[in-house]
Amino acid sequence: MCGIVGIKSDKENVCLSIYNALTVLQHRGQDAAGMAVSDSNGFLKMHKDNGLVRDVFNEEQMYRLSGSIGIGHVRYPTAGTMKNSEAQPFYVNSPFGIVLVHNGNLVNTSKLRKELYDEDKRHINTQSDTEVLINIFASALENNLDGELNNECIYKAVNEVHSRVVGAYSVIAMIIGYGMVAFRDPNGIRPLVIGSKNDSTHMVASESVSLECLGYRLDRDVEPGETIIIDSHGKIDSWKYNGDINRTPCIFEFVYLARPDSTIEKINVYESRLSMGRYLAEKIKSTLSKKELDEIDVVIPIPDTSKTSTVPLSISLNKELKEGFVKNRYIGRTFIMPGQKVRKKSVRQKLNTIDIEFKDKNVLLIDDSIVRGNTSKQIVQMAREAGAKKVYFASAAPPIKFPNVYGIDMPFVEELIAHNRSIDEISKEIGADKLIYQDLEDLVSAVKEGNPSIENFDTSCFNGEYVTVGVDADFLENLSNSRIKSEL
Ligand code: PIN
Q: Ligand 1 test: best mutation among 256, 393, 409, 462, most atoms within 8 Å of CB?
């Protein structure tokens, strides 16, 4: 998962707005950040590096990055390596100066790499699938040029991209001197929204929250398979792919990835989490015996995401909600630390217990999801060390049994605690007295409540049903061999 933003302004220098929008999207990736801005003389300025937004850009770079149109990116590594050369945006200088940022993960990258080399005669210099994508786009633009560059050739180029590329891709590209091009894959797996301030100042971004925080109005989602062009005069035009469009947004955005104050596909993320809590409460009621339910003294969310779902859950169970864990806000994510030992230690550095909420109590802990189960195991242990008698554990998402191939960094299948284990075995593994998982059907219903017109979501990490072609056993095996082992 990554965060992307593009701004075209009628007068103001966009660099500070892009910087601010990237800090709002920082939860989508803390590994690297980058920005490319074009000025009125057609010069492109770019800066990217590993690190948080606030560390990557300094005052000097911000002065240099002036211009009225630009794009930015925050990265959470899902494909490729953690080298700073793989930070985005990527740039090519033919057929025009093009810079591009991408959120998602391509499925047929190996095939495309080979084609680019053999047929398109383009050189790829990194492991990043975004470099593959920009070259496919550039090559398609070259193939479809009809004299002057115009919107029509751009649409034809994106049409070619859709027909060659398989996977998840929300993209913002900038063609220097022409304008900005934003498009979303025909499944609309990763989010992308567009908003505006006035008729000629527009922002495209991964989440609506970056629009709101910068005083833009959310206009709408970029539709699956849709391409939007904002030209250098601020004029907007759009086109819809005429191939297969099958809207299947990633349900995990609602479980954990997106900020609660975002709206994706007209679904308020916060409300979907409240609803998950209500459904999970029903599941808990039907799973635990009356005795077990009666003996729960307190419900405790594991911060931060599950705090939202725990509120209606505790009301529905008629149990007191207590803050039993405090999270250190200033610690970086543990994934940047290599090796299991360091990762285990990091949970304790990140979370601490408020012992009085556990001492001599039967507690029900709520988390948004269980991926590897390492954190859950340590949290259960911490609850016991703080004096809990019984520790029940509930997850607002169903068991994660399959890898995510569309841009969420989920470990390969053997590392998933729910892979090849029954619920009782998982419960034992994390040391809980009982473990309750949300049912997939209920998770889907909870999210759908916000927009009943969405028929399907990508739920592949729960049921192994991948929404694009090309995800077979061979693909999954190659993926697990190439994956960066990082922690979600
Ligand atoms: C973290 C949300 N959430 C917590 C991410 C841990 C799985 N983990 C996924 C649970 S936050 S583990 O609240 O947004 O900070 O199962 O892999 O141990």
A: 256
